[in-house]
UniProtKB/TrEMBL annotation:
Domain ABC transporter as annotated: residue spans: 13-238
Keywords: ATP-binding, Nucleotide-binding, Transport
One Pfam family named in its UniProt record: ABC_tran
Cellular component aspect of the GO annotation: membrane protein complex; plasma membrane
Upper taxonomic lineage: Bacteria, Bacillati, Bacillota, Bacilli, Bacillales
InterPro entries documented for this protein: AAA+_ATPase (IPR003593), ABC_transporter-like_ATP-bd (IPR003439), ABC_transporter-like_CS (IPR017871), ABC_transpr_LolD-like (IPR015854), MacB-like_ATP-bd (IPR017911), P-loop_NTPase (IPR027417)
GO molecular function, one term: ATP hydrolysis activity
Keyword Nucleotide-binding: yes
Protein name (record): Macrolide ABC transporter ATP-binding protein
Amino acid sequence: MEACRTNDGETLLKAVGIRRVFGKGQTAVTALADIHLNVKTGTLVALKGRSGSGKTTLLNILSALDEPTGGQVFLQNREITALSPLERSRLRRKELGLIFQSFGLIPLMSAYENVEYGLRIAGAPSSGNREAAIEALEKVGMKDRMKHRPMELSGGEQQRVAIARAIAHKPTLLIADEPTAELDSRMGYQVMKVFRELVQKAGMTIVMTTHDPGIMELADYVVALEDGRIVTQNQLSAD
Ligand SMILES: Nc1ncnc2c1ncn2[C@@H]1O[C@H](COP(=O)(O)OP(=O)(O)O)[C@@H](O)[C@H]1O
Ligand SMILES: [Mg+2]
């Protein structure tokens, strides 16, 4: 199932009435109250909100890492909240690309080896992995530095390698939790430019979180969360 431009404008990801309560009884915390979200194919959606507003909890549910207390999530009309744990982990490996604040690269491996290793974890047949890894590194502008290890790269470059690892198996959806939080504004902007290019040229769909207003300007939609509820949804650019 490849992300393709012919699906433009169709709903790729849909959340219906998502609720997530941690704990029980008097100490229960309602992290998400009643979240409804529609993400169209080929768009970049940024979730914003103060620390503790529920952004990570929502991304974890959208990426099938966590299960909601109530509500449903659909990816391409398949209800992912109804899948077994095994099916969920297969979905994450094959169809999603995950990116985190802390990059998560393996220090002893070169940029290329990190991406190629990611492909093996995704269960890709080994033939063609080399080409797929190099193609992904090229897309994020890191092909000529692919022999470098993470410590020889800047934070922004490491995050671009992590993006290459997340897209090498051609996922349907990229999910990124605070991908620019550890970067200065120039490097954060470079990472966002890579995201924009992936959306515009490859038809990728991206859901990310951020606090940074400058970063949000590069999103197609900004969704604001407050105390586990969506308070506003804005369309920024109509490209
Ligand atoms: N595993 C957990 N157990 C208990 N409470 C949690 C857990 N994860 C998150 N929370 C609570 O849920 C709320 C939302 O957290 P989170 O989604 O991490 O917010 P954000 O990513 O916007 O900072 C917070 O009140 C947080 O303390
Ligand atoms: Mg968070």
